[in-house]
Design goal:
The chain contains three helices and five strands, in the order βββααββα. By secondary structure, the chain is α+β, with helices and mostly antiparallel strands. The chain has one domain. A hairpin with a 2-residue loop joins β2 and β3 (36-46). The longest helix has 16 residues, at 98-113.
Length: 121
Amino acid sequence: MNERPDMLVGITYKLDLDHIAEPIFLTINHRKLRNKTYLHEIFINCSDPKQMEWIPVASRLLSAVFRNGGDIEFIFKELKEMFSYETFYYKGIKYHSIIALIGEILEKHNKQLNSDKDTWE
């Protein structure tokens, strides 16, 4: 597993979801290695106590997968297929779970890191 460098670059997303009392913040940190950028860790935070069960587990497991290296594309697909009893709309798109939304964001973020575009949504 890749050790954490002293400094990483990251972006934080604020997710205001109608069915959750408080926003969720996703901080995705990445590192550059041999002219390619890799996801390294994710921090998920929310002050809504109903979200506290899954947040630490998701943050740690996803970060471990990212640090392990190799192809991580499979994880985006797996996350996007997660279902919950509460579906919701975010920016006009229907999601079947918060985890599915996080999978979508991670996939887009990862593609953006290694594209020629330098703008972020």
